[in-house]
Fold:
Amino acid sequence: MNTAGFVKCAGALIALALCSACALRQAQDGMAVPPSSAALNAGYTGYVGKTLSVNGRLVTAAHSNPSAPLRFAPIAPDFQPKEKFEYIINFYGTYASIFDWPKSDRQIGTIENVGGQGCTNVLYGYGRRTFWIVAGANQISLYQVPQKLIKTLSISNGQPSSCAMDLSGDLAVGNLSNGDIILFKGASGSGTVMATPLAREYFDGYDNKGNLFFDGFTRGSAFQLDELPKGTTKIHTITTSNTVQFPGSVQWDGTYLTVTDQTADAMYRYTVSGTKATLKGTTKLKGSGDCAQTWIATGVVFCGDADAGGEVYKYPAGGSPIAVFSGAFDEPLGVVAARR
Structure:
């Protein structure tokens, strides 16, 4: 691998990375499908620090893991109806590790040729039968629980980072390379591109009213939280009453809008009025290395930990993990949960 373009930075190890262009193949029916693992992995490498330089452009980065354990072949368990599944989503172009906690904290399967972040068709809790995972240099794919590929959408002019769904089934996908948001009505079609004030978009999430919130860095490398109110095309910058050091997951928890701070290992719970977000509580994620994406379920929150794999915490209590996932990991960047 050519690592000459990678930049090392001091400080906490932070997840999220930019995948390079990959060769994409088309299925016979014309639907794009995830490229082969050989094609994907050829465009990826490990690196250290918060920033990555690709063709002279700095983007967010994840730490290196040259000694990552070899992943094992997917297991084909006898899945039962209404079972719950959690997906620890590894580095772009690698794979997602499947779990069925609380039945077990050990990996039970693998989805190949995906990587990055995920989302599903609920605001919090376990998704209903389907979920999305970033799946290529400019793709995001829909899967049926536990691991059946349904369809793939393409992102033009950029690299998908985050994804979120509202209660009506619309899909919002962030663009890491330029800060744009792409809106897919009914989670289909070619999408509508919305320019944002961000230079790099990291995470997004809808609230219960259909307003889309998303975070990232400005061109001045400052954290920023923005909102696209439902039914409008005007984006508002939201000022938080506390300081967020590094962008993390944005998710509605049933009462509050939450933002995860990767550097502080904390989740902040806010009420939002106008352009002001007021801090109402903090959930500390003790023992985590770097929770890149978090996913809130009922009474718990799952952490996709770029340093350690994945943990489960009580929510909103936080504290030490109540479970630690065991399996094959390759720099996890995301996590999502869904059930049959």
The chain is about 0% helix and 40% strand. The first helix runs from residue 37 to 41.
